[in-house]
Specification:
Chain lengths: 158, 158, 158
């Protein structure tokens, strides 16, 4: 579907900030990109394609995201690795009832504190965004990981 | 060279769909992004720089692309791996006789059905696009792989 | 911060050319993207976060960049590897006294002449750009590598 350069600009900027906020360990800023009523989940592609119900991480409102970041902060006194997201261009899907839907491919690299970098995960984000007072907010981010991840309470978002 | 945000938007969207169609195994959609008179080929950077004639894959019209996707469908009953492309921003080269020329860097990751992801290929696309009724179509996509690939009849496009 | 599609277009094109010029071994073109008064340096994220003074590479004006490329040309008669940068979208930070500040995530892959590709470095560019006669030029590029690199006189820029 076709979008204006202004819409691509605003939503590209949102995704770029999503990635950079995680990578710079500004998880509190990352949470603020979401609408109060939102859905963030991490699933594997295998589960999506086989229509299995497994979900690796799931927060169905913004307070759950806040709690998750809080517990991450309490458990991890120090950063155990550096994250680095490199995102591809947005593929727009739909624009209905003021919700923009699009997909973005991602590659996520992790670097140990000793300085070794490796590929951690690849996949795509299936995203829904609403604008409030001309500011975009995430209604839904579904991380569909090609890589068979096993995230845990200790894990940063993807 | 300078382009308008509208041109960057349209051609970025085309490349994003190129990558996502392959990654989602919508190869028939991928073919439809090409003009009837088109040229798709995969070469290695080494061959380009030494001016050698080797071509790893070559379709010089859209029917050959259709045939290739057909035979891929017949040979592979199941998907043997997942592809994931992450593309960089477009570098515009030229705009002559209604053809836009640009280059795009790509990284291509593959994930086994067991969930292991690895780097498969990096390189660049040298692309030519025409607009028909304001819709962009590929006239030429030359995949110039830095990685020394050995694609086969069984392989998905890059 | 918000920017117009025109600004994102111009600065995305600049970063795309930055990466492609290095990857195509057009290092002289790469130098020409900088203002005469400029600062290019490569540091590691560890050093930035611990506020250490170590710098892996540092040129504090354009002539130093020219010299560096010259000595690279003299030492390396042949290319020892291929570089491939894949950049993410720009995260705009600031626009003050005609200087645009933004960050860009990068992944950098290297391929040996035998055709083996591997991840070489990930990190981000912290960039400052000025426009002169409507043409953008780098005032500062700070490469902040997550990966603990040991570049040398023999190394290409990152």
């Amino acid at each position: 579907m076709k979008v204006s350069p202004e819409v691509r600009e605003a939503l590209t900027a949102l995704m770029a900030e999503y990635a950079m906020a995680i990578d710079e360990d500004r998880l509190e800023d990352w949470v603020e990109l979401f609408d109060e009523r939102c859905d963030y989940r991490v699933v594997t592609r295998e589960n999506v394609e086989q229509d299995l119900p497994n979900v690796l991480m799931w927060c169905d409102n913004k307070n759950m995201l806040r709690d998750r970041v809080d517990s991450y902060r309490n458990v991890n006194e120090y950063n155990l690795h550096y994250d680095r997201h490199v995102l591809g261009p947005l593929v727009f899907r739909d624009h209905k009832s003021s919700v923009w839907s699009f997909d973005v491919a991602y590659s996520l690299f992790q670097t140990t504190l000793e300085g070794e970098s490796r590929l951690f995960s690849v996949g795509r984000y299936a995203v829904e965004v609403v604008f409030k007072d001309q500011e975009p907010f995430f209604k839904a981010v579904k991380v569909i990981a090609d890589t068979g991840l096993i995230p845990s309470l200790l894990a940063t978002p993807i």
